From TrEMBL:
Gene3D superfamilies per the UniProt record, alphabetical: Glutaredoxin
Pfam families: Glutaredoxin (PF00462)
Keywords tagged on the record: Membrane, Transmembrane, Transmembrane helix
Residue stretches making up the Glutaredoxin domain: 70-127
Name used for this protein in its record: Glutaredoxin domain-containing protein
């Protein structure tokens, strides 16, 4: 759980330290802009941007029942963030598994990627696809199960 928040916390702390230095040197406007930038970066890299994660067995069970894709991801992953942003509201139609919170999800990703925890790994109809094009994933969402 805490590993998912390390990057956002570090970003906020760095932003606060830089802003404090700028305020003490007489640049409160620049400090405010910089702090807002760091807080935004922290928010984008936090688990809050992604739909609620579920366990890998639960995601697999639900996917088998309704045919929706399963996305294995981890916080701080730029490619996961790109997929999430490019999917827009469609991201809520998929099942998301945070591999840092779920050992079974991490094992599934390693099995699909020759031992590497490469994310995002999207499983569609039982077949894993590593770092797929978001347009392709969107297309899979529009197909009937």
């Amino acid at each position: 759980m805490t590993r998912a928040w390390i990057l956002p916390i570090v970003l906020v702390l760095c932003g606060a330290a830089l802003a404090t230095g700028l305020i003490s040197s007489g640049s409160p406007g620049t400090a405010t802009v910089l702090l807002l930038l760091f807080v935004t970066l922290a928010g984008v890299n936090s688990p809050l941007v992604f739909p609620r994660s579920i366990s890998a067995p639960e995601a697999q069970r639900r996917s088998a029942a309704d045919g929706r894709p399963v996305v294995y991801w981890r916080p701080g992953c730029a490619f996961c963030l790109r997929l999430r942003i490019r999917l827009g509201r469609g991201a809520r139609q998929m099942y998301w598994v945070n591999i840092w919170r779920d050992p079974a999800g991490a094992a599934t990703v390693r099995a699909a990627n020759d031992g590497d925890e490469t994310v995002p790994t999207v499983v569609v109809a039982g077949r894993p696809h590593t770092n797929p094009d978001p347009a392709w994933v969107r297309e899979q969402l529009s197909r009937p199960a």
